[in-house]
Amino acid sequence: MAFTQDHLLGIEPLSPVEITTLLDLADDYVALNRSPDKHGEALRGLTQINMFFENSTRTQASFELAGRRLGADVMNMAMQTSSVKKGETLIDTALTLNAMRPDLLVVRHPQSGAVDLLAQKVNCAVLNAGDGRHEHPTQALLDALTIRRAKGRLHRLSIAICGDIAHSRVARSNLILLGKMENRIRLIGPPTLMPAAIGDFGCEVFEDMEAGLKDVDVVMMLRLQKERMDGGFIPSEREYYHRYGLDAEKLAHAKPDAIVMHPGPMNRGVEIDGSIADDINRSVIQEQVEMGVAVRMAAMDLLARNLRKQRAAVA
Ligand code: NCD
Questions:
Q1: Ligand 1 test: best mutation among 107, 127, 139, 288, most atoms within 8 Å of CB?
Q2: pLDDT band at residue 65, thresholds of 50, 70 and 90?
Q3: Does the predicted model carry a pTM greater than 0.90?
Q4: Concatenated DSSP letters for 30-66?
C-alpha cells in the first residue's frame, strides 16, 4: 500500500504519494457521509480513545463521528476532570490508557512535541489532533481536500496564509503540505506575528494584505491565537481588523474565483468580516468542516490497516 505510516504525528514525514492516497480515500468517505446509510466497517472491533488536553469543538466532534461511522468503540477522556488535574504526568496517563488496549489514540496537547513523546510509549496508532505550535496534520489534510475539490487540483496554486502565523500549528502543517505538493505560498501578517525562522520555509512574505492577496487562488485566514500570546503582539483588535481583517475590499485583490478558508473558531470582526465568512460564493468554511470528518475517517482507516498488518506479523 502507498501509505506506510504507523502514526499520524505531522505532515512532515508524509510523502506526496501518501498525501494523495489519503485524500483519494477521503473522497470516497465524503460520498459515504452524504448517503443515507453512513456506516462503514473499517474500524469494527477497534477501540479509539480521544484525549484532548486543550479545548476543541470541531476537531474532537469530527474525530468522534469519524470513529463511530467506521464502527469503532469511541471513548472521550474528559481531561479537564481526569487525574491529570491531580498531577499525573502525561506519560503515566498514557501508560494507564495503554493498559486498556486501545487501537487508536487521538491526542491534542498544548505542548509542542508532547504527542510524539506519547507515541513512543504506547502500542497503538497515535493521531496528533494539534500539539502546541507544532503540527495539526488532519487540519492541513482537510484543507488540502477542500482546495482540491474546489479548484480541481492541489498543485501550482497561489495560496495566501494570513494573520497569526507565529502561533499557528495550522499554518505550519499547511505550509509543509502545500509546499510538498508544489504550490506557491505567500504569508501575510505583521512582523510581530511571523515566526523567527520564516526564511527557512521558502515562501514570499508580505506585511500588506492588498499586495499579498494580489491574484491568489486561495485565501486562508487564521485566528488570532490570543491564548498563546503574552503581550504586545498587536496594537489593538480594531487596528488589526483595519489592516489584516479580510473584508470585501481586500478580497477584491485576489482572483475573482478565489476561495476563502478559515479553520475555526472564527473571531468575526477581528481577522474576518462576518459577511465574507457567510458568502456562499466565496467561503468554503462549512465545506472544511465536512471534509474534516472524511479526512479523519481516511486517516484512521489507513492507520488501522497498518496496525492490523503489523499485529498479524507479530502473532
Ligand atoms: C485550530 C487549532 O486548534 O489549532 N482549530 C481547529 O482545530 N479547527 C485553529 C485555532 O485554534 O485557531
A1: 139
A2: very high
A3: yes
A4: HHHHHSS-----TTTT-EEEEEESS--SHHHHHHHHH
